[in-house]
UniProtKB/TrEMBL annotation:
Keywords: Monooxygenase, Oxidoreductase
One protein family per Pfam: ydhR
GO molecular function: monooxygenase activity
Descriptive protein name: Monooxygenase
Superkingdom, taxonomy of origin: Bacteria
Length: 101
């Protein structure tokens, strides 16, 4: 069963196109993580927040990624990483056209 990982944290920037250009290598590396299916990148420049919504194959791979990513962000000087893992209700998600199969 796939699991969603929601991550957010305070960040001074960059945002928008600058963020896209700065984090290309990071984005590519994320696709190689065990159990990774997809990620939606999130940002709110006004609130100085960033993060993402991820889909992983299992709860265990989501937990492993959250642990590793929290440590990686700490290495960038980012503290206070919020991470939550959720099971997916596949029947209702299918009705509402969620990209989970």
């Amino acid at each position: 069963m796939p699991y969603v990982l929601q991550v957010d944290f305070k960040m001074e920037g960059p945002f928008g196109d600058e963020m896209a250009n700065a984090f290309i290598d990071l984005a590519k590396s994320i696709t190689e993580e065990p159990g990774f299916i997809w990620k939606i990148w999130t940002e709110n420049p006004e609130a100085k927040e960033a993060g993402g919504i991820y889909l992983f194959e299992t709860k265990e791979t989501a937990e492993q990624y959250l642990d590793m990513h929290t440590k990686r962000l700490g290495g960038f000087g980012i503290k206070g990483v919020n991470g939550k893992i959720f099971a997916i209700n596949s029947k209702l998600t299918e009705i509402t056209k969620g990209p989970v199969k």
